Amino acid sequence: MKESIVQKKSFEFSLKIISLYKKLQKEKEFIISRQLLRSGTSIGANVEEALAGQSKKDFTAKMSISSKEARETKYWLRLLKQSELTSIDVNSLILDNYELIRILTSIVKTSQQNLTNN
User: Fold this and answer.
1) Mean predicted confidence (pLDDT) in 8-33
2) Residue in 50, 91, 49 with CA at minimum distance from that of residue 74
3) pLDDT band with cut points at 50, 70 and 90 for residue 93
4) First to last CA, the chain
5) For the whole prediction, is pTM greater than 0.90?
6) Other C-beta atoms within 10 Å of 62: how many?
7) Angle at CA 59, nearest 5°, toward 67 and 96?
8) Are 101 and 49 in contact, with CB atoms under 8 Å apart?
């Protein structure tokens, strides 16, 4: 089976979050780095679960969770950037995150419409 765009992008995003986590750990930033690791990698994990969903309702629920995790990740990235806890540039991650949010929002909206139309 071919990998979907959201599946590919969320996996690549997870790898970038892991890399950022490692850098933050070296700088002794432990609290936000752990939150970012958890929420940032959860996006892709929930996408994977959604793609293996047992029903359309299950798919929509898992994609909704993924969308919420992406929004939480946005919060942690913005907080990290604006708090100046680190000098690491997170702008590209913020842009990647916004793209994931747009994709996931679109998937969730379409899925919810399909549920109500059936």
Assistant:
1) 97
2) 91
3) very high
4) 26
5) yes
6) 21
7) 30
8) no
